[in-house]
User: Fold this.
Amino acid sequence: EVQLVESGGGLVQPGGSLRLSCTASGFTVSSKYMSWVRQAPGKGLEWVSVIYSGGSTYYADSVKGRFAISRHNSNNTLYLQMNSLRAEDTAVYYCAGGGDNGDDLWGQGTLVTVSS
Amino acid sequence: DIQMTQSPSTLSASVGDRVSITCRASQSISSWLAWYQQKPGKAPKLLIYKASSLESGVSSRFTGSGSGTEFTLTISSLQPDDFATYYCQQYRSYSRTFGQGTKVEIK
Assistant:
């Protein structure tokens, strides 16, 4: 079965760090464009970051310099390292996979809460 | 960055109605546009890609059109399962921005 499963969310203090994981099954993460998308409580979708199949990475201005996307082919997992976290980073974080035909694969989401 | 603006923000309609949602890009994105449906507590679901191509398994009630800077998602005959929030997303640029969403609610 083709699926994505996120993990690693939780409660963290402002200024802290967290690493999210997204484990893929049924396909290889290096074969697709893999993205992180977040959704603050009661708000819309916000694109966060993407890593292309060739390895290029891009970030939203709101997280540039604080977040880092990566993938490990050995365990078929996508990561999002989040540093210097702020209250406004509180959201459900989704990983998504796709390509030139949009993002057709999504995980179930993992909640990150930044609060003291 | 390319900004995406959806209208309306909320749409009240009845089962069987034909409804349309508009998405405008701040600059040309050719046909690099996708539409997603999201229900509360669930991940988004891809409906349309490349502005007008229907994702496999998605009902033909959904139609996408447009190119350049103006795009439309049309639901031909609204069904109970279609009440949800819809988002457009451009993927012309490396920053793959979303519109702010349109909530389709029961009239």
